[in-house]
Amino acid sequence: MYNNGGIRPTTLGFDSNTTDGFDYGFDGVSSSRESAEFYYILNDSDKEFIINVTNFDINKRIPVGFRCQAQTNFKIKVVDVLYGFDSS
């Protein structure tokens, strides 16, 4: 959510067949050019992704980006957890 108004749903998934870079059929490029945007950053790509599927590692850090043309407040919230992850 940004500025207590706009919502940008994204998906973060984990699959042992994927990498930290672009994986065809798994990762999704954003077609949006909103003035405020949250997106995932993939290795070796200058594109913005709204879907990121990567391999799981408990210590992994997922790089994200925020684009805005004005002062903006962003909130990140996990809405749903599926397939074997503890909801906490």
Report a brief summary of the structure.
The protein has no helices and five strands.
Write the layout of secondary structure elements.
Layout: E1 11-14, E2 28-29, E3 36-40, E4 49-54, E5 64-68
Parallel strand pairs: 1-4
Antiparallel strand pairs: 2-4, 3-5
Protein architecture, described:
By secondary structure, the chain is mainly beta. It has a domain at 11-68. The protein has strands spanning 11-14, 28-29, 36-40, 49-54, 64-68. The chain has a 3-stranded mixed beta sheet with strand order 1-4-2, with no helix packed on it. The protein has a two-stranded antiparallel ribbon with strand order 3-5.
Descriptive tags:
globular; about 90 residues; three-stranded mixed beta sheet; two-stranded antiparallel ribbon
Mean pLDDT across residues? 83
What's the total count of β strands?
5
Strand content: 25-35%
Oligomer, anyone? single chain
Unreliable stretches (pLDDT < 50, length at least 5) are none
Task: Give a short account of the largest sheet.
Answer: 3 strands, mixed
- What general form does the structure show? globular
DSSP helical segment count: 0
Computed structural class: mainly beta
N-to-C CA distance: 20 Å
**If you compute it from the alpha carbons, what radius of gyration comes out, rounded to the nearest whole angstrom?**
14 Å
Give the % helix. under 10%
The strand line-up of the biggest sheet is: 1-4-2
**What string, H for helix and E for strand, traces the elements in order?**
EEEEE
